[in-house]
């Protein structure tokens, strides 16, 4: 789905709307987010992300969310390598959650930090 500004957006089941702007806006926001965290918090979050193979569990999405929407949302925080939707065994539909793999642990840590709550 696209918003008025031409960016991709994804509707979370919590009612939150996330919109992906231009790549430059996303990069600027990511840099600002890293600067505002305390160094010890950054180190712990990055270590945890590296231990999880740079994968982040993204939940509370609608079951009809597409790979393109999730990638647009998560690519604000870094390069997305893969997205694996978790499907219901009985009907094959998405459960509204996915594992998103990033190329770098810093991106995974930032995504997790910004999308929590």
Automatic annotation (TrEMBL):
One of its GO terms (cellular component) is nucleus. One of its GO terms (molecular function) is RNA binding. It comes from the Eukaryota. Keywords: RNA-binding. SUPFAM superfamilies: RNA-binding domain, RBD (SSF54928). InterPro entries: CPSF6/7 (IPR034772), Nucleotide-bd_a/b_plait_sf (IPR012677), RBD_domain_sf (IPR035979), RRM_dom (IPR000504). One of its GO terms (biological process) is mRNA processing. Residues 1-27 are annotated as: Disordered. Residues 54-117 form the RRM domain. Residues 11-23 have a biased composition (Polar residues). The keyword Ion transport does not apply. Belongs to the RRM CPSF6/7 family. This is RRM domain-containing protein. It comes from Haematococcus lacustris (Green alga).
């Amino acid at each position: 789905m696209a918003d008025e500004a031409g960016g991709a957006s994804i509707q979370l089941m919590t009612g939150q709307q996330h919109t992906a702007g231009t790549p430059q806006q996303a990069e600027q926001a990511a840099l600002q987010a890293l600067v505002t965290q305390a160094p010890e918090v950054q180190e712990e979050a990055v270590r945890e992300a590296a231990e999880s193979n740079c994968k982040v569990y993204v939940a509370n999405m609608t079951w009809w969310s597409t790979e393109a929407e999730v990638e647009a949302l998560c690519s604000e925080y870094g390069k997305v390598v893969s997205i694996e939707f978790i499907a219901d065994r009985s009907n094959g539909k998405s459960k509204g959650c996915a594992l998103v793999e990033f190329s770098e642990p810093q991106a995974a840590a930032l995504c997790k930090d910004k999308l929590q709550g």
